[in-house]
Amino acid sequence: MVNQIPETAMVIVAHPDDPEFFCGGLIALWAKYGTEITYVILTNGNKGSNDPEMTPERLAMTRRVEQENAAQVLGVKRVLFFEKNDGELFSTLEIREKVVREIRRYRPEAIIASDPTRYFFQNAHINHPDHRAAGEIVMGAVFPATGNRMYHPELLDEGLEPHTVHHIYLAGTNEPNLWVDIGEVLEIKIEAIRCHVSQVKEPDKLAERIRERSKGVDEYGREVYREAYRHLGIGL
């Protein structure tokens, strides 16, 4: 179990299904112990298929429903969709303001995001540019914009005062400094990933793949299921 369970948390990622694949275990743990969790999904995932019979519009609707179902499995309070086109996500002032607005509105103690510095995984997989862009957007929103009233002053007119996020958890990082034991919620994570029917290849082998990828060894040499993060403590 994670040492610190926040009262409120926000997961800000690029695509529907990113929360469950990247950090479904940590989300399930926090929800189990009472954290109020908000998702912010920046794109609609409308390019996540090679099916010649699929249309971007139908795929976006399908993935929205899949994401809502998965969030319900994990115990997430709410899901916000920004509806940017898949593969077209960039760190701009416009989207940073939208992210700052939701952080100030819901005032999370902790945020989970993707690591903006991760360009590839070992020698076989290039990280999606939307994942990097999403991480960059989050980092620029958290500091300094969310906590500084001089940034996006129009938000003050909406009653959204500055807010400091004290904990950031970067998923998919090259430099983890925190390993979270997710053994008690692994099956919940797998169930949530199963909700993303349009994205899961070989669903009959899904559970085996997730268990294998999650295997690790704790400080006592015991085999555990875990997720790795780069944890940043801001202003602590």
Give the CA-CA distance, first to last residue. 21 Å
Number of helices: 7
Classify the fold: give the CATH topology.
Answer: Rossmann fold
Helix content: 25-40%
CATH architecture name? 3-Layer(aba) Sandwich
Poorly predicted runs:
none
Domain unit count: 1
- Judging from the principal axes of the Cα atoms, what is the shape? globular
Q: Give the SSE order as H and E letters.
A: EHEHEHEEEHHEEHHEE
How would you describe the overall organization of this protein?
The protein has 236 residues and is α/β, with parallel strands linked by helices. The protein has a single domain, classed as LmbE-like (Rossmann fold, 3-Layer(aba) Sandwich), CATH 3.40.50.10320. Helices cover 37% and strands 22% of the residues. It contains 7 helices and 10 strands. The strands form 2 sheets. Strands 1, 2, 3, 4, 7, 8, 9 and 10 form an 8-stranded mixed beta sheet that branches. A two-stranded antiparallel ribbon has the order 5-6. The radius of gyration is 17 Å and the shape is globular.
Give a topology summary.
Layout (H helix, E strand, L loop, with lengths): L7 E6 L4 H15 L3 E8 L12 H19 L3 E7 L8 H14 L3 E5 L5 E2 L3 E2 L2 H18 L7 H4 L9 E5 L6 E4 L4 H9 L11 H9 E3 L5 E11 L3
Parallel strand pairs: 1-2, 1-4, 2-3, 4-7
Antiparallel strand pairs: 5-6, 7-10, 8-10, 9-10
Helix pairs in contact: 1-6, 2-6, 3-4, 6-7
